[in-house]
């Protein structure tokens, strides 16, 4: 159980913070390589990169579209019963769509998006999905009811539920049975024992108002937290303390993604990326205890979804439609010679 007054943890955190200062920033590593205009005027609520097929899935309203990494839309634009709020992929390669109304999970075959089966959700409209591949666990977040459900990743059968708060953000799993959830109401990370589906305490996030974005390095056991005030915290997940703070573009609807070697074996050891209403920000992992602010790329409209296609060195962003315009996808690539 995490506690707020653990003096030993605090002492270790202060020691590491003093010994390992953050490194000054540099130029943003990505640049725009493709711009894909979408047919609808509504925003894209979810993007998913499938590493097996190397395709991108985009949920826009009731429809899911599939794109090749070259940016070409494939023939499928599958309409579902309601607005799709989130996408995930299970270990069997199925695409899972979270539908708001009626609240349900829809399991689809990859690429063709043929509906395999559906499972009703009872906790409320789903807002986010997380498939923890290492633990083979699927989590469904309902922000209206402030709850997290664990369901079977193949059948969708309910396996447990935890009620938390109504200001929940992104989830991250450590692959060993622990789930973390950003909670903007408490400026904390909620910690859930995913096996028993019970509240296991919280990690306080000092000087981080409105945490919403969350990603995890499961090997180094580091949590990357995006704060609405324009700070990214790097938190030791085992001890629960923040040992690095770096600047990012702030906002109330930040999203985060992390990957090792985000553009292949050569280059950065790892990278965390935060996207929000004004910009996308990058943090370079130089070692498990050393990180660097790597600048920002300004966006013309807010980012509504992001997907990190690390095997091909691309970052995909869905941008909200401007007034009277259409939503677009930005595909960001990297000049590998500049990021080694």
Please characterize this protein's 3D structure.
- There is one protein chain.
- This protein has 340 residues and is mainly beta.
- The protein has a single domain (11-338), classed as Methylamine Dehydrogenase, Chain H (7 Propeller).
- The protein contains one helix and 28 strands.
- It has one helix spanning 7-19; strands at residues 30-37, 44-50, 55-60, 63-68, 73-79, 84-89, 95-99, 104-108, 115-120, 128-132, 137-142, 147-151, 158-163, 168-173, 178-183, 188-193, 198-204, 213-217, 222-227, 231-236, 241-247, 255-260, 270-275, 279-287, 290-298, 303-309, 314-319, 328-334.
- Strands 1-28-27-26 form a four-stranded antiparallel β-sheet, with no helix packed on it. The protein has a four-stranded antiparallel β-sheet with strand order 2-3-4-5, with no helix packed on it.
- 47% of the residues are buried.
- The model is unreliable at 3-24 (pLDDT under 50).
The CATH homologous superfamily is named YVTN repeat-like/Quinoprotein amine dehydrogenase
First and last CA, distance = 40 Å
Quick one: CATH class? Answer: Mainly Beta
Query: Which fold name fills CATH's third level, the topology?
Result: Methylamine Dehydrogenase, Chain H
Number of helices: 1
Average predicted confidence as pLDDT: 90
Provide the spatial order of strands within the biggest beta sheet: 1-28-27-26
Portion in helices = under 10%
Radius of gyration: 19 Å
| Count of all domains | 1
Beta-strand residue percentage: over 45%
Count of β-strands: 28
Biggest beta sheet summary = 4 strands, antiparallel
**Form type:** globular
The structural class is mainly beta
- Helix-strand string: HEEEEEEEEEEEEEEEEEEEEEEEEEEEE
Q: Can you tell me the CATH architecture?
A: 7 Propeller
Identify low-pLDDT runs: 3-24
């Amino acid at each position: 159980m995490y506690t707020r007054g653990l003096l030993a943890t605090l002492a270790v955190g202060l020691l590491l913070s003093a010994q390992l200062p953050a490194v000054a920033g540099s130029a943003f590593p990505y640049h725009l390589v493709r711009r894909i205009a979408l047919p609808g005027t509504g925003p894209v609520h979810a993007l998913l990169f499938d590493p097996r097929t190397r395709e991108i899935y985009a949920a826009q309203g009731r429809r899911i579209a599939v794109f090749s990494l070259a940016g070409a839309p494939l023939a499928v634009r599958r309409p579902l019963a309601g607005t799709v709020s989130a996408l995930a992929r299970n270990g069997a390669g199925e695409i899972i769509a979270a539908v708001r109304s009626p609240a349900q999970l829809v399991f689809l075959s990859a690429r063709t998006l043929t509906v395999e089966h559906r499972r009703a959700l009872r906790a409320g409209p789903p807002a986010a999905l997380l498939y923890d591949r290492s633990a083979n666990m699927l989590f469904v977040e309902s922000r209206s009811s402030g709850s997290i459900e664990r369901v079977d990743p193949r059948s969708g059968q309910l396996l447990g539920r935890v009620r938390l708060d109504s200001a929940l953000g992104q989830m991250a799993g450590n692959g060993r049975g622990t789930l973390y959830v950003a909670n903007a109401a408490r400026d904390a990370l909620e910690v859930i024992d995913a096996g028993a589906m019970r509240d296991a305490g919280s990690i306080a996030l000092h000087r981080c108002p409105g945490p919403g974005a969350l990603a995890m390095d499961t090997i180094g056991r580091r949590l990357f937290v995006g704060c609405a005030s324009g700070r990214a915290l790097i938190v030791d997940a085992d001890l629960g303390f923040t040992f690095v703070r770096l600047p990012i573009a702030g906002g109330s609807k930040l999203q985060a993604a992390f990957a090792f070697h985000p553009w292949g074996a050569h280059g950065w050891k790892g990278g965390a990326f935060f996207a929000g209403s004004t910009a996308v920000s990058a943090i370079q992992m130089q070692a498990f205890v050393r990180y660097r602010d790597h600048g920002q790329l300004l966006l013309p409209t807010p980012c509504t979804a992001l997907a990190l296609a690390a095997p091909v060195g691309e970052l995909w962003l869905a941008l909200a439609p401007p007034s009277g315009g259409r939503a677009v996808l930005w595909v960001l690539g990297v000049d590998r010679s500049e990021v080694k």
